[in-house]
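Sat 14:20. Reprocessing the chain from the morning session after the first attempt stalled halfway. Input below, unchanged.
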Amino acid sequence: MTQHPIAKHRLEALVDGVFAIAMTILVLEVKVPELLDRRSTAELLEKLQHAWPTLAAYLVSFFLLGLFWHWHHRLIAKIVRVDIPVFVLTLLFLALVSFFPFAAALMGRFPTNPVALMIYLPTMGLLLTTQAANFALALHRGCVDPDIPEAEIQAAQRRNLRGCGIFFLAATPSAIRIGPVSLVLCLLAAAAFFILMRRVGSRRPASPA
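Finished this time. Tokens:
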């Protein structure tokens, strides 16, 4: 079957656009408070104090999306072509990016509700996992620049897997709030990523010809 590769620069433009929109949408949850007395300093400060969970969710989520964008930019720089499977997995990644503002809004409005945490943390975990899987798929399908040294490729893979493992390990305190099943899943996911990282690290780079 004939392959129809996607122009890499078009995919990068799509990724940049989706990230820009998602990062902008985040701020829409930060509302200007309504005051009974528009001149009341105390009332305004009280309203702003109640709004701090929304502000915190906005700042943290904006920073995280920025990191995800930077991570994707570093990985896509190593890819020379984009075929259909890599494109489809990238679309899944972008779907999660587009969903992230909703998860952030839930955390901002209901910071003590375990259900909000149950949506926010898995969304982050899926973003990290999908991004790491995307690079692994591109490597498997020969879409990665062959001129890049294998040691550099392995280092990128280890960073991807380490980042996923650290996230799931760091998420265990929050998983405890959700329930024992979430805690077990977090620990299993963290262990799996660290094992994969060790396996990648144990492969010796091919010697140059």
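The chain has a mean pLDDT of 88.
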